[in-house]
Amino acid sequence: MAVDMSNAVGLDVPAAEQVPGSPGELPPGRRRGFRLPSALGPGIPRALVFAALGYLFGHWIGNLIAAGYSQVTNSGSNNAAIILGYLFGTVGWIGGMGVLTYPLTKMTGREELLAPQRSVGPGRYFRYTLDHKVVGIQYMVGMIVYFLTAGLLALAIRTELLSPTNHVFGPGVYIEVVGEHGTMMMMMMTSVIVGPFGNFLVPLMIGARRMAFPRLEALSFWLTPAAYIILLSSLWLGGFPTGWTGYAPLSVQAGRGMDAYVAAFGVMAISIILAGFNIVVTVINLRAPGMTWGRLPVFVWGVMTTSFLMVLATPVLFGALYMLGLDRTIQTSFFTDTLGGSSYLWENLFWFFGHPEVYILALPGFAIVLEMLPVFCRKPIFAQKVAIAGMVGVSALSFFVWQHHLFDSGINPDMRPLFMLTTELISIPTGFIFLVGMGTLWKARIRLTVPMMFAMGFFFNFLLGGISGVFLSDVPADTTAHGTFFVMAHFHYTIMGGLIFAFFGGLYYWLPKMTGRSMNHRLGKWNFIAMFVFFNSTFLPLFAVGELGQPRRVFEYAKRLQTLNDWVSISAFLLGFAILLFVINLVWSMIIKPVRSPENPWHSRGLEWQTTSPPPPGNFDRIPIILAGPYEYGKPDALPMSDLVSRTSPVAAAAATDSERTI
Amino acid sequence: MAAATERRDGIRILGVWLVLSAIFMPIVYFVWGPHLPPGGMSDQAAGQRFDNRVLGVVATPVVLLVCTFLVYALLFWRQTGEEIEDGPYITNKVKFSGWWVGLTTFTVLCLAVFGTYELENNNGAGTGSGPRPIFAASGPMLPVQVIAQQWRFTFRYPTYGGMETTSLMIPQNEEIQFNVTSLDVIHSFWAYQLGVKADANPGVNNIAFVKALHTGKFNILCAELCGLWHGAMTANGQVMSQASFDSWATQTEAQEAPVTKLLPKYSTVYSPDEAGAGGNYYGSQYPVNP
Amino acid sequence: MTDVAESALPPIPADAEEGLALSAAIGSIWTGSRLLIGACSFLYAAFAFTFFYLRSLNSYGRWHPKAQHPSLLIGTAATVALVAAALLHYYGLSRLRHGLNLDWRVAGIASLGLGLLSAGLQIYQLTRLNFFPGSSGYASVFVGWVPVHVVLLLGALYWLETLVARSLRVRNAWHGQGDLGGSVTPEATRLRASLDAFNYFFVFLSLVGVAFWFLFYVID
Amino acid sequence: MKMFEKPLTRGLAVLAVAGVLAGVCLWGIFGFLRSSVPTVDFSKTAGPVNLRVQTVAALGFGPHPTWVSYLVKDPAGAWVHSTIWQLPADRQINVTVEEYDSGGALRNNLWGGITGTLDSQAAINGQSTAVVDPSAGNGIAHTFNVPDLGLNVPLYGISSKAKNPCSAAPCSTSSDHNTITFSFHTPPGAGNYRWQCFIPCGLSYLYGNGGPMGAIGFMSGFLKVVPA
């Protein structure tokens, strides 16, 4: 992070003085000596080559160091070589993308004040770029790829569970698939809102031209493809048998695929920390004049509280992964009880990260939904301060609940009442969100657009997810529910039913902003209906499956549960088709037959809609002065949110005269 | 906002909600409740079922309130057509928010007190409570050791000569103390119908209590991912009457004597290097080589 | 941030944006360094937790067999070097505030050297251990913590190096305007803000070094 | 980018990409994830099935040459590296194990007792016994354990100082080995019965249960019982 500090905010260079070429590449005037042809310049081809070379180099070093040890020759797996290979491969990858050029140049005392990337054309989406809008789109595509891959793995899981005893994949591959699905989803869900929407929208919503640390922002994205490839490569190395939680003695025991888990999650942890870091600093420092904390949109509040959790909780995960890596390579004994370690250590460290992580997944969902509600209710948000208090309360409490994952483990059994209390307390701030949502709906003028449908779906799903959480927080009831499909259904209701519904709603809502093209609403409606029905049909029976005695992550189960499991599997396939419907809509409306969207299709007051769609490189013609809050619907004398629309700007005109119905 | 309140929305929502709650809460408690898992085979299972019933009753009105509100909102406050009309300018109703916060806080605190009481009053409620449980049963009890290893459970009866079996037999109406431990990675001993779940950790004696009320068979599963055969790591269990348990135990003790002779002395945990049986992951330079 | 709710102010002129951007930049550097310290604190806290947790569990009595000890001399020397580097930089910075540019440059370079010495000593100490990494809980925590500390220290030293290099490079250009300590150009202001931020972080690192020195050599 | 101006061409391009991705997914599923250990079929023979297996200290070939493994002689008489054996239901199975690995201690000595065979006994080099003491003699090299059938047979190991150990599979009987024979009866119904070894023989994996112990095809597999 030190890398970027003294060039935190480079001044925007006027178009005439812009430096051509991409960041990470010296401007032509400063290039000295031999110049590479542009095909060998920073970009994905070079990054792939560097990554491969880095992997081979790391692997060679690892073999040089460790090949002779009897542990390596006997087991046939040199974990040090694999982990080093992944690390050097990642360094090669980001180096090839051009990330390292600037920090290395900086060591000579040179300073490049590069303008944000102004290049146009599809090529910029495949490059290391300093434009937060490009990074937002990159993140969006990247996270959708993550989501679809992990979703396919989920379908593989459900395929195996079609029969209690006959096996499609067999126990080994099944466990690998379960682990891949869980880890990939967790890695992706952490960034799925903060990455695409946080990066794209936060500057637009606070009236800034850019992020505080655009290089870190770009780096945080370009680490995610590396993590994706590393994690998937685990299958090739035999997978990892631990699920996403990576419980320790098993993860020390596991074969080479576990190294990919360590490396991929570690790389993603860095990406998460950087992304959160950038957003927190941006929101605190880059708000436009007049953007007081009280006027800050709820979405920005939500993303900022999430980012705080990301910055503070993820280092603990990184530390735990590092310890696991050491146990696996140089044979420390953090997690081996007979040598002074403890299997409890991993459980504590992991869940100390893991529980804030769970709220990292919940808060952005709240934020998106609460941001959309006032627009489609045509009413101010109800009790905005309560909403913010809810988010802040959830994030603060989330650091004090982690041992509720360990009620049966025998760790500090005398502390269970305390953790039961903190866990149940967290439903108070969560209840705030429902209060705000219901208060906003009260006597509203509800327009049931596609994003609003997803918001309503979010409330229903999150309600069931949250209520089932109360059963899990109660120690006696948790005795049966712990480690079963009940837990699995619970967190799928909050993550898939909550966060992903909010994400899809957000895509329908903001894609017109991000691309200037609108999604097909008819298809969107069907997408929502199918998703809502099949989601509930998939996961509601799983509560019963769990309570009836089926543990998580099993490849065999009791024959009496086959009907329920088959029902779930078939629903899951249909849910897959519902999501395919979304992909078709996305590809059709964005790529194949784009329809130009109105400038402000939802007639929102929000600042992000007061510039063109997609926004110009500098976001605004000038830095706006914020005149009023974003949710002043129904107040006849309300000022517009900023001074950008008070005059006859094209945006305001479009918003005023736009009679085209988009629903 | 006054103009819009010709319909008394609040009263109507409240009415619907109260009626629905009055219908569904008794149904949940009295009709559905007795059939809730994990059943009533043991004291602990019955306690968990009671918790599930109570929580179900508490959850019902919450779910009904939100659902009623959402449905009502979509039915009566929906706006269609071309015209975009702004709603009433309501930014907060402090009294309402205050009531909401107060009620949720009260409910949540009650639930926490209830959970703690149930945990304490039910001998740890069947959960693994560490080596020195504070919510422990007192009086005479039968110790049974549950040994988890990759990928099987075995059961050891220290009071019957330290014999070890592959299925779990316990007597009815007697307090049982399960000492759960693992020989390798983390497992979780879950006797579903008994309402017992305790993680099996290497080097840790995790104690759970149960008192079976009825005879019959029960299933034992592993509830913590432990590797390749996690899904197949099951065992059979049976609650027997006192008399048949005694005859089974004495008979098995005699029958198993040749194998029992091979077993290490009974202990709460078994370190992997006692017999030199480890994978030598840690090399010969280490004092133990698990 | 001024509140302009009711008055329709004229829009911000383009040349005022530069001032906004500068204050945002300085604020970002300030916030960023504090947040960086927060993140690093949690990383170190993971190790401190591990230390005390394994120590209190002491499973199989193998938390810390008495014979296993890293060299007290090297460990203390590394910590002292680190603290000295941080103090030196702190002092140099306070001199810079009085306009003494050369003092900071000398202090910065010396601090860089001391920091490298500290990192080098810690790595050297790892090669001179009388125990294997997995010999005990203590051994694991020690072997695990030192590389983390060294890497973060090297990161901080990289940061210091860029600052020193920058200040040397701009020496001539800014000479007439009061050099680094006195120039009022936006770039100089930002560089000074970065110096402050670095100073804060470096002091934090040295305090962490002292804290863990207590853990490893005094508390055991 | 001119060629992508028409929606039709863009659509075709998207379809092409989708086709490639679908192909990759299908290959991943069927060519990679679904590929598994071959099933060796013994259900076609009439009468009692004679199963001949061997356990080797190091496989010597394949991606994991250092791993211990079971091998089985298929009906045609060739040694196959597989642990999924298809057996007829309700039939007597006579098993002969050629054990080429050196012995050691058990993690749980319960597995020294022989259970689930026809007379609860097994013959080690012709000598019938009901219990094998892991701490006596050469110790136990592996066990053959089918949990759902209650079957457990410890396989007595060869001496670690054996003069002529087998170095690569398949081993011939000229190398030092023990022969263990036992019989069991398959259950009347069809089903997949998992079996595994219960000795921490995954050398250099923590607790000895990784590597060959954690992968099907080496120290564990299925008995696929099918109606005859």
Q: Profile the largest sheet of chain C.
A: none
Helix content of chain B: 25-40%
Distance between the termini of chain C: 50 Å
- Average pLDDT over all residues of chain C: 89
Mean pLDDT, all residues of chain B: 91
Quantity of strands of chain B, as a count: 10
CATH top level class name of the domain at 71-219 in chain C: Mainly Alpha
Q: Which CATH-level-2 architecture of the largest domain in chain B?
A: Sandwich
Largest interface: A-B, 106 and 107 residues
For this structure, what is the CATH homologous superfamily of the domain at 71-219 in chain C? Cytochrome c oxidase, subunit III, four-helix bundle
**What letter string, H or E per element, gives the SSE order of chain C?**
HHHHHH
Distance between the termini of chain B: 73 Å
Strand order of the largest sheet of chain B: 3-2-1-5-8
Unreliable parts of chain C: 1-7
Shape of chain B: elongated
Unreliable sequence segments of chain B: none
Strand percentage of chain C: under 5%
Give structural notes:
The complex is a heterotetramer of chains A (663), B (290), C (220) and D (228). Chain A is mainly α and 663 residues long. Chain A has 21 helices and no strands. Chain A folds into two domains: 40-111, no CATH class; 122-592, Cytochrome c oxidase-like, subunit I domain (Cytochrome C Oxidase, Chain A, Up-down Bundle), CATH 1.20.210. The longest helix of chain A has 35 residues, at 343-377. The radius of gyration of chain A is 25 Å and the shape is globular. By secondary structure, chain B is an alpha+beta fold. Chain B has two domains: 7-76 and 105-121; 142-260, Cupredoxins -  blue copper proteins (Immunoglobulin-like, Sandwich), CATH 2.60.40. In chain B, strands 3-2-1-5-8 form a five-stranded mixed sheet. The mean pLDDT of chain B is 91. Chain C has a domain at 71-219: Four Helix Bundle (Hemerythrin (Met), subunit A) (Up-down Bundle). Chain D has 228 residues and is mainly β. Chain D has one helix at 7-33, and strands at residues 39-41, 49-56, 69-73, 79-80, 84-88, 92-99, 122-124, 127-129, 140-146, 151-156, 178-185, 191-196, 220-226. The longest helix of chain D has 27 residues, at 7-33. The N and C termini of chain D lie far apart (65 Å). At the A-B interface, helix 2, helix 6, helix 9, helix 12 and helix 13 of A face helix 2, helix 3, strand 7 and strand 9 of B.
